[in-house]
Amino acid sequence: MTSEEMVKQDQMKVNEEINKVVGSGAYESKVDMPEEFTPEVEAELKVLEELLQNDGRFSDLQEKSILIYSEMVLRKNRYLNLTSITDAEGFYSKHIIDSLALLEFVDEIISENNQTKITFLDVGSGAGFPGIPIKIMRPEIEMVLLDSLNKRVKFLESVAQELKLDDINFLHGRAEDFAHLPEYREGFDIVTARAVAKLPTLLELTLPYVKKSAVFLAMKTSEEELKTAKKALNILGARVESEKNLILPFEAGERTIIKIRKDKSTPKKYPRQAGTPSKDPLI
């Protein structure tokens, strides 16, 4: 074996050990995470801090929490592929501001419930958008984040621990499975999902979690998918109540929030078994 081959073999062993540790969730806090920041990333974080300071909507604690959360996402990004967006303007507009576009609807629902504690489910949470930013801004909400990848769930747990977030829980598994458990079925005032699936599939995955008379907030790039969602809405017992179109800052594109009201209980057969809603959507 040549010296070059030996070095390569040693590096492969090191990478395997790193992946074992990271995947186990051993890095439970920001302090414990391996230092992976390049000077470029450090510079982007400084720009992000300035953007948050100049935004005007954040308290000192909220600003600090969002910045720490952003740092944690970027630290773990090399191992978990949490986001392809690492520049400050993109991260701010496509992750932070995009997530907070839901706040208007969240506040409406809090008002509808006369200050009763709201239950919120983020399906396919990934790196925690939009759930974590919403929780930072409205800490009184009872938040549940669901994701199919255990490594991401471990990461989200470490974020909640680092930020000292209360009333937040995490589910590892598929949306099709948890929706049939009585403790989660029709148990939430607000359900949302971002970049998970086309709307007909998404409705089948999410509406079973929504309480009767409560809402699902679909985050889409346009209303175009509504054209194919009529059958799913009818079968699953819901209707479109309103839509709001937004332009994200720094030319980051458009966002459409579709507010869907659930009028009757979803038939017990839905969602169908894992994979079926995407392979055979209700269209």
TrEMBL record:
Specifically methylates the N7 position of a guanine in 16S rRNA. The gene is rsmG. The keyword Transferase applies. Gene3D superfamilies: Vaccinia Virus protein VP39. GO terms for molecular function: rRNA (guanine-N7-)-methyltransferase activity. S-adenosyl-L-methionine binds at G124, F129, A175, E176, R194. It comes from Fastidiosipila sanguinis. One of its GO terms (cellular component) is cytosol. This is Ribosomal RNA small subunit methyltransferase G.
